[in-house]
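Lay summary. Proteins are chains of building blocks that fold into shapes, and those shapes determine what they do. In this project we predict the shape from the chain. Here is one chain we studied, written as its sequence of building blocks.
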Amino acid sequence: MNKYGRKLWLTVLIFVIVVGGLTYYWASKGENPAPLSQSKESAVEATGEAGKETVPPATAANTSSGPAYTLTVDTENPGAKISPMLYGAFFEEINHAGDGGLYAELISNRSFEDSSVTLFNWWIDEKGGSKGKLALTGTKLLNEAQTQAMALTVSSAAEGGSVSAVNNGYWGIALTKDASYKLSFYARPEPGNIMPLRITLESPDGKELYAEQTVDKLKEGWNPYTYTLTSTGTVANARIVISAANVGTVYLDMVSLFPETWNNRENGLRIDLAEKVAAMKPAFVRFPGGCFVEGKTPTDAYQWKNTIGPIETRPGHKGYWDYRSSDGLGFHEYLQWAEDLKAEPLYVAYIGISHNGDPIAKQNTVPVSEIQPWIQDALDAIEYANGPVTSKWGAQRAANGHPEPFNMKYVEIGNENNFQMSEYIKRYGLFYKAIKEQYPEIHLIANAAVEGEPIELVDEHYYETSEWFLSNSNRYDTYDRSGPEIYVGEYAVTKGAGEGNLNAAIGEAAFMMGMERNSDIVKMSSYAPLFVNTKDLTWNPDAIVFDSSTSYGTPSYHVQQMFGSNKGDVVLPTSLVALGQEETSGKQSIQGGIGLGTWATQVEYSDVRVAKGDDVLFEDHFKKDSGAWTLNNGDWEQSKGTFKQTSNDIDIRAVAGEASWSDYTLSLKAKKTGGAEGMLIMFGSKDEGNFYWWNLGGWGNTQSAIEKSVGGTRAVIGRTVPVRIETGKLYDIRIELSGSNIRLYLDGKLIQEVNDESPAGPLFQTASRDLATGELIVKVVNAGDTAQRTDVSFAGLATSSLEGTATVLQSDDLNAENSFAEPDKVAPVTQKISVDKGSLEFEFPKYSVTVLRLKEGGEIAGHGGRFTPSL
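And here is the predicted shape, written in a compact code that computers can read:
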């Protein structure tokens, strides 16, 4: 080869290396451009089904040469109506969400009832040589509701000295310069004692004085005292000091300090926290819980009648979450709060099942024979909310300042009672019948389906990983529309969420899109928990974080606010297509081996057979130990045609087969010989943490459902169905797998059919129209680690031009969190956008939630149809 030939060869080689290197670079980044011969017009055709994902795996990404996806919104053929109640708020007294939070009271243990042995959060300060003591007293009390008061005694008085009772509120009393504070208390001097008082608001060390009030003379007996204090400074950690200088004793009760409140309500709400909830635009407010409803025992259950009227007549009670509730934020205040929010109140009624009750012994359960008072209590609550002023409880509502009815429409019968389903079954019908007979207009919500009883809505709760929420964004696509409607009453990413990171918000947003797209059956939803005081992080994460003076929203809060503020009236069909890729439906076959299991039961299994068409993959008749089964625990024995498990432990499994098996039929016989539950039949088993099982006779042997375990976290897919397993009865069981389809048979009868199709991602989307304004609303989640340039087009528009806004929640770090130092580190950014000729090229940033809100208009000067958010 001559030198010219060598030069030509080197030139070609360099070109190949460069092109190959660039190809490898883009491939490694997951940014493969479409083939040059593939035009946008010849891309994969959309399915036309509302919200149907037709995208490749999450590695697909955009390119600098053009869009990676087309997202088409069909504006001409609206789908299901979106429930006006879809997005609400759920309040529970947890994490000091109420006392020390939303409830604006600044004094902790104001009625001295928080402890029977100590003056919780009150302490003595002796100054200038004066001596004395503080003590609890249980005699000559303010009223029958109060069981304790505080005695402040000066035993030795020095010139210029004092004995003081000190309280720093809930981890500090927050004061704002020039703001007014309402001070109130009840006092009773010991007869014959002259006990003038000095009340101050001070810095923690007492060196700074922010406000002062003197009481020159106390009247005999118990009397109320009310004053207005104005702060001379701004501070987050002030304290209140009640001082006496004369020898003697004064008794104090209901020591209260209120700032200005939201909507200027008496006994009202902290402004910044109430405003954050209002910004969510909740359609309803669920209260008072949560586990707070039941308490740990029936004695601690929520009793709404003890939470109304003057605050000094409210005894308070021991709450579920290990602190006492003052019940200052009571039933009346809840109803008033919902009214101020223009939201529907949803009351959760106690049904005699407390949350620390043993599912078997039920030592903390009110006997059904004694349940009538609690049924009447629920009826009385409805009368208080809705009854005329001529009724007993309607008159009490009027006496409390609200003669007009609150028009409450929703009541939930119990909370999370599926752990005691056998008891719930006995009670649900009693409450339903009694309420419907007297108030047929009330919408009633159940915790679980109860066979033979009318069910209007079922409350489903999900606390899972972000990955679970992403993979379940289409959960409700195949729900049986002939069954009850759904209220997703509690949900949140609680694993891998930090203290409230973007990763959690991404998963929740994708799941919310699925609820919105299926709002013909999913009528209501509410994130939980709503609040956390950073000093009492009992549950993590939460939507709104606060301390004594400030607050911020987590990324999950911002998603709630974005969705609540941008909910349309009807679903618009959408199709999402990856350019340059073959069409894929995202369907994947369920693969994995089989297993047999028990949960607090004893079972005999026999005649296990796995067949794929005419091919038998596995068969065991248990004549002897086949050696085919891997046991995780339990007491197993193979002999005489049976595989017996005799332990009463939980989560016992024996597995067999290959992880590559798919599209097979598993058949077997099973007999329960004892125990509390039914039996577990596994399929699609890949390893210890990834499998499916048919939980037959679970939840106290009342329900059956398919549970899917991903990474060791199990969750129900599809619905639970009422199936009970009888002891001693031999059952024929058959499970048919075809692709992602699961068909379950018991004694030859089809019990359930479920499709487990996980959306591919990384883009998840839904669209809707606001009928009042005509605006189009498009929501898109990009869960991937690269931006996705997408051609967003609108089919069927009367005009080709649109204008509006793009609101984007995004960070380059999935673990990014907000904090008091950086409250808006992850916060929505809104920019104006325009659409020309019916389409918009939009780049959805990596790790983002985007809401496009657009209205048809005339010719618009704008971004030329291409938009990259400036974040």
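What the prediction tells us: The CA atoms of residues 455 and 471 lie 28 Å apart.
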